[in-house]
Write a structure and sequence with these properties.
Blueprint (H helix, E strand, L loop, with lengths): L10 E7 L18 E5 L11 E6 L5 E5 L3 E3 L1
Antiparallel strand pairs: 1-2, 1-5, 2-3, 3-4
Length: 74
């Protein structure tokens, strides 16, 4: 598929954390304010939850779900 300029394949867009988030489950992603996360599609669309995104933290390549309202698009 086509990719946006400079984004790795499969990346929908990037967000920056505006608040710290500590995961509450093993499939979630923890991050600190300022961390950049690449938003990707869910492997299984049935897992998608309202208000949550699937992403990969750029600094560690960890993957997990996180609350969208803790981040903003960049």
């Amino acid at each position: 598929g086509a990719t946006l300029a400079g984004l790795p394949a499969g990346t929908l867009y990037r967000v920056r954390a505006t608040y710290r988030y500590t995961r509450e489950d093993s499939d979630e992603l923890s991050f600190d304010v300022g961390d950049v996360i690449r938003v990707v599609e869910y492997d299984d669309p049935d897992e998608q939850e309202e208000g949550w995104l699937m992403g990969i933290k750029e600094s560690t390549n960890e993957k997990g779900m996180f609350p969208a309202n803790f981040t903003r698009p960049i």
